[in-house]
Design goal:
It is built from seven helices and five strands. It is mainly alpha-helical.
């Protein structure tokens, strides 16, 4: 296939951005600072790196794209993706690249718009496991007029901007400092 023109390359870059911005694993890594102080910048850089990977390599296979994204997540966010979402992300990006090459720009724009709508519905958030102390905190929250001595107040979160993870994913901290995101069995 022929290389992408500059306008098509920009559209593909927009498509990669839309896919990565709606990928819960990456958003959890960014929101929780798995990539350090520059997690958001690393996520933005990933868009350029992935787009450049496609431009520099001919006839990429989905497995190669999966390996590349997995490598980026390991190196930049200390995260091993094991929730089954990596093949889906790689497939979306590969399909959009092929559509850009074939001149199906309307299809790509439509998919980008769908992903933007999905993104505006809310970002994925990792939620900590519930402990018995959480019940006491809940009682304190219910009594609006009373002060709660339950501990320091954490950061506030706009509930409209939070989307719960599907029940089939979980997040575990490994002994070696890596975070493993995987499906519940």
């Amino acid at each position: 296939m022929a290389p992408l023109t500059s306008s098509t390359r920009e559209l593909f870059s927009e498509a990669v951005r839309a896919v990565l911005e709606t990928w819960p694993v990456l958003q959890i890594a960014v929101d929780n600072g798995f990539g350090g102080a520059y997690s958001q910048q690393k996520a933005e850089w990933m868009v350029d790196a992935l787009q450049q990977y496609f431009n520099d390599n001919d006839e990429l296979l989905q497995d190669e794209v999966e390996d590349f994204i997995s490598h980026l997540m390991n190196n930049e966010f200390d995260t091993m993706v094991d929730d089954g979402s990596l093949p889906q992300v790689a497939q979306k990006v590969c399909v959009m690249f092929q559509q850009c090459q074939q001149g199906k720009l309307t299809d790509v724009r439509e998919q980008i718009n769908q992903l933007i709508l999905k993104k505006s519905a809310g970002r994925a958030k990792a939620t900590p496991a519930k402990t018995p102390d959480d019940d006491e905190d809940k009682e304190c929250e219910d009594e609006e007029a009373m002060d709660c001595d339950g501990g320091a107040e954490g950061p506030s979160v706009d509930s409209a901007a939070v989307m719960e993870l599907p029940q089939d994913t979980s997040q575990e901290e490994q002994d070696d400092g890596w975070t493993l995101v995987s499906r519940k069995k």
